[in-house]
Write a structure and sequence with these properties.
This protein has about 260 residues and is α+β, with helices and mostly antiparallel strands. It is built from 10 helices and 7 strands.
Length: about 260
C-alpha cells in the first residue's frame, strides 16, 4: 500500500502545526538560555516513541510513559515564566496571522513614532560620562503593564533632562527601571525579573541581570548604563550586548 495515499491534507496541517509549535518552543528556549533543557526533553520523547511505539518494549516504555506524565507537571513548574510569555505574546497579537508570521521572523517596526530614540541616546551618553547608573526599558509588542505598576506612574513626554533627573544619584527612583511605552515615559522605579543565567560574568550587577531578565520574559529592549564603568549595554531577546558607543546604541534601537 502506498503510504502517500494515506497522507491527506489534514495530516499535512497537523505536521505543520507541530513543526511550528516546536520551532517556537526552540526559539523561546534559545532566547532564555534553556536550550539544553529543550534538547534533553526532545531526546527523551524521541527515545520514548522509538522504544514504546515502534519496537514495543513494553517494560521500559511503561516506565518512560510514567516519567512523561509526571514530567509535564514538572515542566510547567520549571518554565512557568516562559509559558506566561507565550500566552501573553499570543494574547497581545491582535491578529492570528500576525502572531504566526512573527514566529519565523524578527518583529518589524510597525511605524510607531521613534522620537524617543535620540533623547534616550543623549541621556545615556551623558550618564555614561558621569558614571550614573540607569536602566531603561522600551515596550514593543508585549505589554509591560504588570511591571509598570511596580513603580511610580509618570506618564510624561520623553526628553533627555527628564531621564537624567530620574536616574540622578539622589533621586528616590534611580535604583529602579524606567519604562517607555509609545512616546511616553510611563513609570519609573519599576521592579524587573532578575535573570539567573549562569553564563553571565560575575562583574555584572543587578541592573544588567534585570535587563536580561526582562529581555528573557518579554520582547522589550532594555538599555543599561553601568554605575561602575559607565559602559552602555542593551538586552534583547535573551542576549546582552555590551560596551556600545552612542552610534552603536542609536543604530541598535533604530533597527529594533
Amino acid at each position: 500500500m502506498n503510504i502517500f495515499a494515506l497522507f491527506g491534507i489534514k495530516d499535512l496541517i497537523d505536521v505543520l502545526l507541530v513543526a511550528t509549535l516546536l520551532y517556537y518552543v526552540y526559539r523561546t528556549m534559545k532566547d532564555t538560555g534553556t536550550l539544553s533543557v529543550f534538547i534533553g526533553v526532545l531526546a527523551f520523547v524521541i527515545a520514548w516513541v522509538v522504544m514504546y511505539k515502534i519496537f514495543e518494549m513494553r517494560l521500559i516504555g511503561t516506565i518512560m510513559d510514567k516519567f512523561i506524565d509526571i514530567g509535564l507537571f514538572i515542566l510547567v513548574i520549571l518554565f512557568q515564566d516562559q509559558i506566561k510569555r507565550f500566552l501573553t505574546e499570543l494574547g497581545s497579537s491582535h491578529k492570528g496571522w500576525r502572531f504566526v508570521s512573527n514566529l519565523f521572523k524578527h518583529r518589524a517596526d510597525d511605524g510607531a513614532n521613534k522620537r524617543w530614540i535620540m533623547p534616550v541616546v543623549y541621556a545615556c551618553m551623558s550618564m555614561s560620562k558621569s558614571k550614573t547608573g540607569a536602566l531603561i526599558v522600551v515596550e514593543r509588542q508585549m505589554p509591560l503593564d504588570d511591571y509598570e505598576r511596580t513603580g511610580d506612574v509618570i506618564d510624561a513626554n520623553i526628553n533627555t533632562r527628564l531621564i537624567e533627573n530620574i536616574f540622578f544619584k539622589n533621586s528616590p527612583l534611580h535604583d529602579g527601571a524606567l519604562i517607555i511605552a509609545g512616546d511616553k515615559v510611563k513609570s519609573a522605579g519599576c521592579i524587573l525579573p532578575v535573570s539567573h543565567d549562569t553564563s553571565l560574568p560575575r562583574y555584572l550587577g543587578l541592573r544588567h541581570r534585570s535587563a536580561l531578565g526582562i529581555a528573557q520574559a518579554t520582547d522589550a529592549v532594555a538599555v543599561v548604563v553601568s554605575e561602575e564603568t559607565g559602559n552602555i549595554s542593551y538586552a534583547y531577546k535573551g542576549e546582552l550586548h555590551q560596551k556600545l558607543t552612542s552610534t552603536d546604541l542609536e543604530h541598535a534601537l533604530s533597527n529594533l
